[in-house]
Amino acid sequence: MRVAFHPAAAEELEVAAVHYESLEPGLGQDFALEIHSAVQRAVEYPQAWPRLDEAVRRTLARRFPYGVIYPHDADELLVLAIMHLHRQPGYWKERR
Question: pLDDT (tens digit, 9 = 90+) per residue, 29-58?
Fold first, then answer.
């Protein structure tokens, strides 16, 4: 299955990784790896994660308060958002 990132989701990943790296060297890389692990879980088990609405699901990062928001079809998993779980829920809905 192909994985693609919405441009805004790619930017969210970069901004959060830079933020975590500024807190502690190596933490930004840990964050990026954890997000990529969450994406991989979504690829392997796309229907396993809770629906946020009819077409969109969310899987969670394990060490960080972030979710990976994605719609799924048979050919592609599109990451719509790398969403902080304690800020502005639903801000990503315009990205579909």
Answer: 999 999 999 999 999 999 999 999 888 999
Euclidean distance between CA atoms 77 and 88, whole angstroms: 23
State residue 72's pLDDT score: 77
Q: What fold does the segment set 2-88 form as a domain?
A: YaeB-like fold (3.30.2310)
- Could you state, in order of their start, the residue ranges of all structural domains in the chain? 2-88
- What is the full DSSP assignment across 67-81? EEEEEB-SSEEEE-E
User: Could you tell me the pTM of the whole model?
Assistant: 0.90
Q: Dmax of the chain from CA atoms?
A: 40
Calpha distance 90→44 (Å, rounded): 25
